[in-house]
Design brief:
alpha/beta; eight-stranded mixed beta sheet; 15 helices; 14 strands; globular
Length: 429
């Protein structure tokens, strides 16, 4: 599938949804020695898909799938023994596939992921895990039921700096945290758009119908490709969807945030079909046992932060500021945390979290019988829900009173249409 920038997702297969697999691939795999190579299929071979291919090239690449023939040809040249496909549903009929890596546009993540899980395959899926909140809940449940090993592609979850920040916060270095500020320099692609009226021909290398997958049918236009799909609600989730699962991750982990009680958003330059040029999203999380209530603020597209957070994050394009009763922790995305103000005699707390061998290797080890990967879908599903609730607040323009257990917004009934989505015939989950 046509990808682009780094990070995202794909989805499933109707053929194996009903028929199932004749045997359990994970069970067979775990009966083997941990050192054997895994038979992996890749859905999406360009952009982030190419990066995932490079990261996992030491395993057995047995199948490659992309709706873009150019991406597929380039990947097949690198892995000539792998069988090429344009339709992942046909790919999943290949019996020797043990695991699937999904690196496609957001709107196809859930169908490809669920089809892979239900056929007994392990899954690595790019961020955000799904296109809607309801899909994230469903996929986490399916992964538990089918006992497959999973990992979402929020690479910074495995970064030493992220884990050190979590240790500092949970170790009380800045005292109880009641406020968090997160921001990104995205979008770096067009947003605030209206649907084009001209209908240029589909490029010969692109299977447009397969790329649309479960999305509502529309004519091809180059404004959607190769990565600009992120700015269209039918295919992506804007800047928040692109970066939220990476940037909100540290706060979700360190503060054990759980489900928010309230979510509201402000947007500049948003249209019914396209994400805003700039937005601010505010989440309110209730107290959690001894942990105080937390207000989390998200900014993208240059939306101005309050002065304290803005000064702390000067020069950082993507990051987080934690405000505690005794100070602040600034965490650049993928970097090391720093304390503000930092006492001269400050000593970092002793590590309490294991350092990651590598984000992709964590998943491989889990697939081969090791401990679950740290961003498995039990963790990644709820994180994705929080991120995509911000998208719901943007698209409805309403303050959401969130009922997490029941996946509803009682005060905004129209939010139901954004919490889930309709699927084209042949692509339902």
């Amino acid at each position: 599938m046509v990808s682009g920038l780094s990070r995202r997702r794909f989805l499933e297969c109707a053929t194996l949804l009903t028929g199932g697999a004749a045997f359990s691939f994970p069970t067979l795999l775990r009966s083997q020695e941990a050192g054997r190579k895994l038979n992996i299929a890749f859905v999406g071979c360009g952009g982030q898909g190419a990066e995932n291919l490079a990261a996992l090239a030491g395993e057995n690449v047995v199948a490659l799938c992309d709706t873009n023939a150019n991406n597929l040809a380039a990947a097949t040249q690198q892995f000539p023994a792998a069988k090429p496909y344009r339709d992942f549903r046909k790919m999943l009929e290949q019996k020797d596939i043990e695991a699937v890596v999904i690196s496609t546009a957001d709107h196809t993540h859930a169908v490809a992921t669920l089809a892979s899980i239900r056929s007994g395959r392990h899954v690595y899926c790019e961020t955000p895990l799904t296109h809607t909140v309801a899909e994230a809940r469903l996929i986490a449940q399916a992964a538990r039921e089918h006992k497959v090993s999973t990992q979402m592609g929020n690479l910074t979850h495995s970064a030493d700096g992220t884990r050190q920040a979590v240790e500092w916060i949970q170790g009380g270095v800045i005292g109880p945290v009641g406020e968090v500020y997160c921001w990104t320099d995205r979008p770096t692609w067009p947003q605030g758009l209206t649907r084009p009226v001209d209908t240029p021909p589909v490029p010969p290398h692109l299977d447009w119908d397969l790329w649309l997958g479960p999305a509502v049918e529309r004519p091809y236009h180059p404004c959607y490709q190769p990565m600009n799909w992120r700015g269209w609600w039918d295919f992506g989730n804007g800047a928040l969807g692109d970066m939220g699962c990476n940037i909100l991750d540290a706060a979700f982990w360190a503060l054990n945030l759980g489900q928010p009680a309230l979510v509201e958003a402000e947007a500049i330059g948003m249209t019914p079909e396209s994400a805003p040029k700039s937005s601010t999203v505010r989440y309110q999380f209730p107290s959690r046992g001894p942990l105080p209530a937390v207000r989390l603020h998200w900014y993208d597209g240059g939306a101005p932060m309050v002065s304290e957070a803005a000064e702390s994050g000067t020069g950082i394009k993507n990051g987080t500021v934690f405000i505690g009763s005794k100070g602040r922790i600034v965490l650049p995305l993928g970097g090391a945390p720093r304390l503000m103000p930092q006492p001269r005699d400050f000593k970092s707390p002793q590590p309490t979290l294991l350092r990651s061998v590598n984000h992709h290797q964590e998943w491989l080890q889990a697939c081969k019988g090791g401990k679950p990967a740290e961003s498995n879908f039990d963790y990644a599903g709820p994180l994705t829900e929080i991120v995509l609730l911000g998208v719901v607040a943007l698209r409805t323009g309403k303050r959401l009173e969130w009922d997490g257990p029941n996946l509803t917004v009682p005060n905004v009934p129209e939010a139901a249409a954004v919490l889930s989505q309709a699927y084209r015939k042949g692509w339902t989950i």
